[in-house]
Amino acid sequence: MRIAVIDLGTNTFHLLIAEATGNDPEILYKTNVPVKLGEGRINDNLIIPTAFERGLNCLKTFHQTISEHKVDRIRATATSAVRSAENGNDFVKAVKETTGISIETISGDEEAELIYLGVKLSGAIQELSLVMDIGGGSVEFILCDTEQLIWKKSYNIGAARLMQRFFKSDPLSDEDKQAILFHVQEQLTDLFEICEKYKPQILIGSAGAFETFAELVTRKQNQFADIAQIKTYPFNYDDYIEIAIKLINSTHQQRVEMPGIIPLRVDMIVIASLITNYVLGRCKINRLTLSTYDLKMGVLASQI
């Protein structure tokens, strides 16, 4: 069976087409487009007209690609930007009318569950772990081990939300940093309680920003690993911290000139670095691994 998975993220729309053969699907086609659906007014719970149009055009192209690949089944999931927007349902209807694609707007809990399935498929979960997925609209945390998902929660502290609300200086001022961290601390109280109880020793970063961290670390080490071709990547913790601090203290232009950062992530990577460092510190974790498998691979796993 041939399956198409569409993941409508706040920043990026992903399309994955796979042949389901046993438990190890063969990826036939994979692409992502920086649609920036949450641009401008995500904190006002609104998809602005230009973003609405970009999203629609992207899905028209995805539909054409899916038709060319003669897919048997499509599952399209929308996350934070669509579920929180007052005109999110209008977007879902417009897509259905224009392309015939039915979009399922999933809850934060469902999103966390699918991220867990994706990360599990990568083989990254080898012990009691805290999984973290930094999206544009929300951040998901999953406490799990090799056997089970123990606890999960989605928080509305995604990089696009925090950027639009707090990112007002270049480089990011101490005042803006403190405002972001104070907000994050207020939101994540129950996460810190659960980590205090279970004491996970490793953080698994799910794709996205963590792929950028891996790209920057491997370039620093002159390894130049093709991150897109691997399932997991264990970080040297000190190298990660060095890169994260460099990102937090850099100017917009300095980040633009850093090889390994895609344009969409030039500013959001600062927010991702701040949140990740804060969680590592508060949860007393000093081991970090990347899983390149995330929500879309979880959706694929759920279909097989």
Automatic annotation (TrEMBL):
<dbReference type="GO" id="GO:0016462">
    <property type="term" value="F:pyrophosphatase activity"/>
</dbReference>
<dbReference type="InterPro" id="IPR003695">
    <property type="entry name" value="Ppx_GppA_N"/>
</dbReference>
<dbReference type="InterPro" id="IPR043129">
    <property type="entry name" value="ATPase_NBD"/>
</dbReference>
<dbReference type="InterPro" id="IPR050273">
    <property type="entry name" value="GppA/Ppx_hydrolase"/>
</dbReference>
<protein>
    <submittedName>
        <fullName>Exopolyphosphatase / guanosine-5'-triphosphate,3'-diphosphate pyrophosphatase</fullName>
    </submittedName>
</protein>
<feature type="domain" description="Ppx/GppA phosphatase N-terminal">
    <location>
        <begin position="17"/>
        <end position="302"/>
    </location>
</feature>
<dbReference type="Pfam" id="PF02541">
    <property type="entry name" value="Ppx-GppA"/>
</dbReference>
